[in-house]
Structure formats: structure tokens, C-alpha cells
Amino acid sequence: MSLDRVTMDERVPRDFETLRATILDRRESLPKRIAQIAAHALDNPDDIAFGTAASIAASAGVQPSTLIRFAQQLGFDGFTSLQQVFRERLRERNSSYDERLLALRAKAEGGAGHRAIFDGFVAAASTSLNDISRTLDEAHLEKAVSLLAKAETIFVLAKRRSYPVASYIAYALGKLKIRNQLIESAAGLNAEMIGFATPADAVIAISFSPYAPATIEEARTISEQGVPIVAITDSSFSPLAQFATVWFEVAEADFAGFRSLSATMALAMALTVGVGEKRRGTGRKRKA
Amino acid sequence: MSLDRVTMDERVPRDFETLRATILDRRESLPKRIAQIAAHALDNPDDIAFGTAASIAASAGVQPSTLIRFAQQLGFDGFTSLQQVFRERLRERNSSYDERLLALRAKAEGGAGHRAIFDGFVAAASTSLNDISRTLDEAHLEKAVSLLAKAETIFVLAKRRSYPVASYIAYALGKLKIRNQLIESAAGLNAEMIGFATPADAVIAISFSPYAPATIEEARTISEQGVPIVAITDSSFSPLAQFATVWFEVAEADFAGFRSLSATMALAMALTVGVGEKRRGTGRKRKA
DNA sequence: CAGCGAATGGAATGTCTGCCTCATTTTTTG
DNA sequence: CAAAAAATGAGGCAGACATTCCATTCGCTG
Known about the structure:
The structure is a homodimer. By secondary structure, chain A is α/β, with parallel strands linked by helices. Chain A contains 14 helices and 7 strands. Chain A has helices at 4-8, 16-26, 32-43, 45-50, 53-60, 64-73, 79-110, 113-135, 138-149, 163-175, 190-195, 213-224, 239-243, 262-281, and strands spanning 154-158, 180-183, 202-206, 229-233, 246-249, 254-255, 258-259. Chain A is elongated. At the A-B interface, helix 4, helix 7, helix 8, helix 9 and helix 10 of A face helix 4, helix 7, helix 8, helix 9 and helix 10 of B. The first copy, chain A, binds a DNA duplex through residues 31-34, 52-54, 62-69, 78-80.
């Protein structure tokens, strides 16, 4: 047996960063095909982690046997051991963000003091942003923006918890010189305001469970007038969804009984600025 | 052949979250061994992603064939397709938090379409949350909460961009049955409202550059009446800071000319709920 | 340009994979 | 409690897998 040599001085990189450094270090001295794989491996680490030797070799444009030689040259005893390093990287990377969030949440739930409360809200907001970033339907977004961009006046409809979002939308639309009307309950003239809306206009309606009855009623009325509605709500069973031309499902995390608004805010701003861009793009002009 | 049934109505979950929801949904109705695997899968998703059918079955304490039946019951055509979902999850979540943010921001700046705009706002919000989580001064938070908890009425003062935050604070304070007064400009009676404030009350004032002159003026007036002020603003040179008893410096990231509100929102909620807790803790009661 | 060692391609190999089948056990139903 | 249905266990099979081996090509050096 002459395995001694292997165990003697060859230090096998066990973590991805070391491996990466090793590869970059030897880059010059590697044979052509091996270098080809090295480049491919650092560029597409996920493929190495999940692919088979054959599939990786094919997408790197080499023979499977070369891939194995590459692994062996780095001190591994085969492709499989090399792959372990790439897989370990994904395992560890993955946990970092979630762990951070979990830690925050744990601190929020376990810990005392007001810092804990603050952490709870930060965690809820982060979670919500994370979720919406994954689940947002791009087609819905495009459709909603087109719809709103065509509107003469954009009516913004929201009560209670959702009202802050509506007021920010109204503020942003105003800054972008897009004609809009915020429907607030203060003056008690909602019915009259809604009466002005025509099918040439559009509505952004926001409501979450428990749905403010006034919002639902007003959405119903306005939809019966043939005005298209973009709804932001929390489930496809929401009463808002049935009146809506396009609707978004936003799941906000909550803390201490108050749901985050961060995901809804991000979506609201994307809609607003999206409409602004679209109008500028088509040369359409609006005065405040 | 009776495969028709499968292709007909069974909707196969393609992303991890949907899959997770589906499993949790059917949890009750699953056979014992299948449930055993379901639990193991949700607890050790990484193992499912990387292991072989045999190794996973062993560590879940079942037969490999059961694992395959589990996958089929969910609508997949075999273990391999189920595994794809677990692998996709790792691919998408793969990068560390910072890298993910960078990627989002790059996509937002480079990319076209409205998804890019959305990503930009999500990135801005995440960055802001990240920043405030690092920089928030805990002592300031404690001091602000004590100050507000002692107030008879909490006045909330903000205009324009900061107004949504103020309206959410007012909403939350209301739900917590804490007496508060939102100072909005609509009725034009701000001066009179402010006149009611006494040193036994307190103010939450929010303003960011460019500072709304009305907010500054009102803050000045109210501080001259001896009312303590908690300010949320963006720099210690802010005109708001000089009137404030306690102030928070919040740096919000911006995108497309609109700053995020997420960090301010999180702080605002922490203050609000903090006050609520403190009052309940000291047995102090308030009526709406 | 001949000679030689390293590098490479491609097929062969034995192992292990996922998945199917069928016998057995458990649960449900009448 | 019997019969039927569902769930489970275990062995077997075809195919895919990583790896090895050997013939061929490439890139030196003299």
C-alpha cells in the first residue's frame, strides 16, 4: 500500500473558501481542461453541488473523467468528496440568514425590555419582505401597473391598519404628478367621492383581515360602476378579491398583535413608481 | 392505464413554501409512516435535498419505498421530483444575506421591468431595517418609552412623507387604548390643537430632510410650552433634534427617489407597544 | 522532427440508485 | 368478527452513477 503519501502532506480543503483559494492559487499551473473545470466550478458552484459528474462535465464541456482528475488533483479521492464541499457550503449559507432572523425573534420573545420589542418588529418586517420577495407574481404586477397607468385618476382606498399605506401612495403619486384621490373617512363624503369615479379611472384598494366593512362596501360600489380595481389583501378568499381586476396576496408577519406593513409598503411603492415610469415611457403627461 | 387521474387535477407544489403548506394541510389525514416522513422532511429539509432515498428513509426510520409513496401522494411522480423542490429551495436561498441584498439591488438597477422596481424597494427596506437594528441606541429607547408612558395624551406630529408613520402610530395607540392626538393639517386647526398640549403630555414628532417647515414650527411652539418631545429624524443636525428631549437618528435607504419607511415604522411600533407594555406593567389604566 | 511524458477522450466496469411489485400486516367497513 | 381496503415491508430490476483503464493526442525537449 502506498496511501501514506496521501495522508501525509496533502491537505484537502474541507470548506468552500479554502477550496476556492486553493483553486485560484494554482490556476496558472493547471492543465487546460482542468482549468476549464476550475473556472466553471467557481462560476457555477450550485451546479457542482446538485449535478451529477456527467451533467457537470457536459455543461463545462469536458469528459467526466477529467472532472474526477480535477478532484483528485485537489487532493480529494474522487468527485463525490469534492461535491461534499460544495454541498456543505449551501447548507451553511442557507442557515445564516434564517438563523439571524430566528435569533432576533427568539430575543424578541424571550428577552425583556423594549429592545426586545423593537427586535420583534424588525424581525417581522424582515420576514414579510422576505416572503413577498419570493412570492410576488410578476405577471400580476405588470397587469396592475398597466391598468393603473391608463387611469385618469387613481383612487386610493384603505382604512384603519392599511390607511398608512394608502396615505403614502397618495403622497408618492402626488410627487410624481399623477392625479389621485385618497378616500378617507374624516369628512364623511366618501360616497360622493366614489360617485365621481368612472371606468376611465382606477382604484388601489388595500384591506386585510379583519376587513374593514367600509372598505369592502366602497370597493363593491365602485366596482359596480365599472371602475377597475387593484387590490392588495391577504388571501384569495378575501372579500376584496372578488371585486378586483388584479389582486395581490401579501402575507405580513406580525408581532405583539400588530402586523408589519413593510411588504405592503414595498409593493405599494413598486406600483406607484411603476405607474410613473410607464407614463413617462409612453410620453403621457399629467398635471398635478 | 389509469394515469389520467394524476394528470387531471393533482396540482404539484413547485416551490418549497407551497409544498410545506400542502404537507401541513394534509398532516391529519396522512398514514402513520407517511406522516413520519413528512415530519422528518420539514424538520431536516437539507437532508432531503442532498441525501439518497435510502439514506433519508433510514434516518427517518422507514423503508425507501415509503418515501417514494410519500412523494407520489403529494402528486410528484417520484422521489427525485420531490427532491428537486428541496434543492431549488437551497439554490434560491443560497446566498448569504448581504449577497442577497446586493443581488436584489443589482437586479433593481440593471434590470428592466417593474419587478426590478419592486426589488429595489425591497432592498431599500431590508437595508434600512438592517441599519437601524445595528445602530439603535437602547438607552434612548428606554428613555423615550418612559417619557411617553407618563404622558396624559400623546400628540403625534408628522407631515408629508412621515405622515403614514404618524397615522400608524395613532392607529396603534388607539388600539392599545392610549389617549393620543394626531396633528394633521387637513382641518387647518393645528395651532389650536397644539395649544392644548401641556407639560403633562408628550409628543412624537417625525421629520426627515427636507424638513417640512410646518412640522418644525409646530415642534418649536410645542416645546416652548414645555411639552417633552420624542423626535425621529435623520441626523443630529436636524432642526427637530434641538427641540427634542430624546431623539432617534434613523437612516432610511432610498430607491427611485422615495425613501423606505420600514425602519421608521419598526421604531415607531416599538415605541408604541413599549408604552403600552409599560403602562400595563405599572398598573396604570387609561380609557380611550 | 523524433521521442517522451503528461494530458485527454471514450468506452468498460462494478456499485448504487430510484422505483416497481408482491406478500404481509394493519386498519377500516359492513 | 369477517371481509375488504389501505398501508407497509422487503426483495428485485433496469438504469444511472462515479470511477477506472487504456488508447490517442498534445506539447514539450533535445
